Amino acid sequence: MSTSISTAFIKQFEAEVHMAYQRMGSKLRDTVRQINNVTGSQARFQKVGTGSAVSKSRHAMIPTMEVAHTTVDVTLADFYAADYVDQLDELKTNIDERQVLAQSASAALGRKTDQLIIDVLDAGSNSNNIVHGSAALTLAKALTVYEEFGSADIPDDGQRFFIVSPAGWADLLQIDQFSRAEYVGEADLPYAGGLTAKRWLGFMFFTHSGLSLSSTTRDCHAYHKSSVGLATGADIRTEINYIPEKVSNLVTSYMSMGAVMIDNLGAIEVQITE
Questions:
Q1: Ranges of H-type helices in 124-165
Q2: pLDDT digits 0-9 by tens, 8-18
Q3: pTM (2 decimals)?
Q4: Which of 44, 80, 179, 215 is the 20 to 30 A CA-CA neighbour of 140?
Q5: Would 58 be classed as within a structural domain?
Q6: Which residues of 162-192 are buried (b: 16+ CB within 10 A; e: fewer)?
Q7: Does the residue 29 lie in any domain?
């Protein structure tokens, strides 16, 4: 057998990694602002302030809003997911086993993508963060987040997200206003079809198993899509190299990516006890 895998195999494997990543790799990527195809090691997000409409007298000059424009920079880092495939094992590999390897690589890169976003949310402290207070995810905590977003004029445009741990989701199921038909209607019951995502109080609530845990305190996060940025230089790519000392092929998937907090006014950390 040749010491290199065919081009067709590489292309097929890379396509499978892409498909698996898009389907099951990252849960958070589409919940934040994105810049793709970044050239270089840094990307820049624009942050635009708020303005006010004013009146003017007849024939007077129109006052300008003088909206503040600032920038937030993010540095990209490189990440890899690699594994060896024995040369002789490859002769025996069928399509299912190849897909397992592709899914493993995509899952690893997906977890890294989500971890970048979670790390930014953890570090992006907001004065309105809600400490656990030795309590689970309660109705009072959810309503406090709702009030804070409203007071800060965070857009209620379908792009508010609230990520909770599986234990936090279990807490939500015990809240009547979240889980009973007389409050939300039968069509919006959170356990219909076994789903673990539901829109409530203007937020899309969903679960994530990778949220930070310190002792018994879990950090959940409510945020608006515009508050966090994710920049991608090289999206997922795959290459396969033969390593003669191992008589194996090194299958490597990699990407270049970075995340940053753009506006912490639109992000609140909610601590719960598990």
A1: 139-151
A2: 666 776 677 66
A3: 0.83
A4: 215
A5: no
A6: bbbbebbbebbeebeebbeeeebeeeebbee
A7: yes
